[in-house]
Design the sequence.
């Protein structure tokens, strides 16, 4: 004889069953769970770079985990962003006609919201190089590319990756940009778009490459395996030739090694012209050719444009770290099948990247800088283990919060905001006459 159950017991049983069913169904087709997992890894990697996980090392001869996440996490994020754009605009079929018009309008709506959100996060003054503003600009730039073929996207990405850094570096070198003279092409807009933490010459080809990948049948294991293998090959090619070209040993693993034109010019003997020096406050009486003769513009351009270290913005970094990102995406797509249930929390974080990234930046601003309610949680000069534990705490908090939200509410709150803005922008052409 079965005992009668109370309404509370029935509600609890229904909640347990519902939670279990949602866990079981999360990330099922047509959604590509492996892409969400890769995006979640990118977010956690960027958080690790921000918090400085310097204590997590494999030994004196092994790879430094902090160096692995430096630069490569944001590049993985860029590649996955391109895949997401392709998935949202037709998957394997490029949009045409009305579908293309709708995709372009929605992309513009997303771009404006992401840009506004990124600017708001920068105003917090956390000291983090917020990645969202450049993504807002990138989404606007991508609008003309939405209807291109997969091959055209791949060739355009390759051309920009090879030629872009060299052209920009050469222009900055021959104009002595960054040396505090009027004819330099430097400036706030140029620094933000071309020589900042996230230059377009790096991020645009990576996003375009991601769009080309998103047009493939990523739901097929064979495609994922080819992506993994080709990514490993590209990484070995880019990092290997990058080390040979620059005369370094594991230069791709040496932390943040940005080589700006200013530093290149300074090392060439014109440090007195750099901003902040007394001579930079008055015009230089020497002719342009006299100033140019004191530097090596071709050498400065090559050292910057063909760098391999993280955040150098060089072609070898784009090829090597881009291959690394391809391999990670391929591995995640393969792992999402047999380990789907275990990867649900990580995929939940990846399903709401704006929400997770914003939560991290806000918490960093409150706890570390500038409010500094608990500055000891992250330490670069003191106990190095503090940063590692802070990173683990951030990861655990996001895993719990995002999983709970995804299974109970679905789409993340900021993702809903962006989707709503895109929907409002994409109105029928005749709606304005009503």
Sequence:
């Amino acid at each position: 004889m079965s005992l009668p159950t109370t309404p509370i017991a029935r509600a609890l049983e229904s909640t347990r069953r519902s939670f279990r069913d949602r866990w079981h169904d999360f990330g099922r087709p047509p959604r590509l769970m492996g892409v969400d997992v890769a995006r979640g890894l990118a977010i956690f990697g960027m958080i690790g770079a921000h918090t400085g996980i310097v204590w997590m090392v494999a030994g004196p001869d092994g790879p430094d985990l902090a160096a692995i996440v430096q630069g490569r996490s944001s590049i993985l994020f860029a590649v996955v962003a391109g895949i997401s754009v392709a998935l949202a605009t037709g998957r394997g079929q490029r949009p045409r006609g009305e579908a293309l018009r709708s995709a372009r309008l929605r992309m513009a709506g997303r771009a404006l919201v992401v840009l506004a959100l990124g600017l708001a996060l920068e105003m917090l003054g956390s000291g983090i190089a917020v990645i969202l503003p450049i993504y807002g600009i990138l989404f606007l730039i991508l609008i003309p590319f939405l209807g291109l073929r997969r091959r055209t996207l791949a060739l355009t990405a390759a051309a920009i990756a090879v030629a872009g850094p060299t052209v920009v570096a050469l222009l900055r070198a021959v104009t002595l940009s960054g040396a505090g003279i009027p004819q330099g092409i430097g400036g706030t807009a140029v620094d933000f778009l071309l020589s900042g933490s996230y230059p377009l010459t790096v991020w645009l080809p990576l996003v375009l490459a991601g769009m080309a990948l998103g047009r493939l049948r990523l739901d097929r294991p064979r495609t994922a395996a080819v992506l993994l293998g080709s990514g490993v090959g590209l990484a070995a090619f880019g990092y290997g030739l990058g080390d040979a070209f620059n005369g370094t040993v594991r230069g791709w693993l040496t932390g943040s090694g940005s080589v700006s034109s200013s530093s290149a010019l300074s090392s060439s003997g014109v440090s007195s012209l750099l901003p902040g020096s007394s001579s930079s406050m008055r015009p230089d009486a020497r002719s342009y050719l006299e100033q140019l003769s004191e530097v090596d513009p071709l050498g400065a351009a090559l050292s910057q444009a063909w760098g391999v270290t993280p955040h150098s913005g060089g072609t070898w970094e784009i090829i090597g770290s881009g291959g690394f990102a391809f391999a990670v995406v391929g591995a995640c797509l393969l792992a999402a099948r047999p380990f789907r249930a275990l990867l649900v929390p990580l995929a939940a974080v990846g399903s709401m990247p704006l929400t997770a990234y914003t939560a991290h930046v806000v918490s960093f601003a409150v706890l570390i800088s500038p409010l500094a309610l608990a500055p000891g949680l992250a330490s670069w000069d003191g106990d190095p283990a503090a940063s590692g534990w802070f990173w683990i705490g951030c990861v655990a908090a996001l895993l719990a919060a995002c999983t709970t939200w995804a299974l109970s509410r679905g789409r993340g709150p900021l993702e809903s905001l962006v989707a709503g803005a895109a929907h409002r922008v994409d109105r029928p052409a005749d709606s304005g006459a009503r």
Notes: Residues 78 and 261 are 24 Å apart (CA to CA). The first helix runs from residue 7 to 25. DSSP finds 18 helices and no strands in the chain. Confidence is low (pLDDT under 50) at residues 179-184, 255-281.
